[in-house]
Amino acid sequence: MTDAPGLALLDDEPFVSLTTFRRSGEPVATTVWIVRDGDALYVTTGETTGKVRRLRRDPRVTMRPCTRMGRVAEDAPSVPAVAEVVTDPEVTGRVMSAFRTKYRTQFRLAMALERFRKKGGGRVLLRITSG
After folding, report:
1. Rounded CA gap, 53 and 60, in Å?
2. Residue 89 CB: number of other CB atoms within 10 A?
């Protein structure tokens, strides 16, 4: 592994609290699924979400392990990083396959429900690397 030890702390976590920052500097935490591909961690999200808009302006993020409901333990490590939006079809195919492998049925169900509930807008990946 070529990244800083911080990202490695999150490899096996099922859920991570990903914090992005508003223009004002106010942090916004979101619970996400995460997978590793090479030296980066990846998150998948809707292309029109607030976190994508915030990351296009400010790539800084912090991540902390959390529960499915977003609860973060007081002593959970905080890992600073940077994120970028990835839309490359080859990377997307490979990483989405990793999500299906790691999260199995729950990921497939979540994606199916999302397609059913939402109209328009696709998904993008957020590539997260050491800051």
Report:
1. 12
2. 7
Six token digits for residue 23: 């223009």
Question: Which element (helix H / strand E) includes 64?
Answer: strand 60-65
Average pLDDT per 10 consecutive residues for the chain, totaling 131 residues? 68 94 97 94 91 96 96 95 94 92 82 63 88 69
CA 22 to chain centre: 17
Q: Quick one: which of 94, 71, 59, 75 has its CA closest to 16?
A: 71
Q: Can you give the pTM of this predicted structure?
A: 0.86
Which domains, from first to last, does the chain contain? Answer: 5-130 (2.30.110.10)
Backbone dihedral angles phi then psi of residue 86, each to the nearest 5 degrees: -120, 130
Report residue 120 as tokens: 């328009």
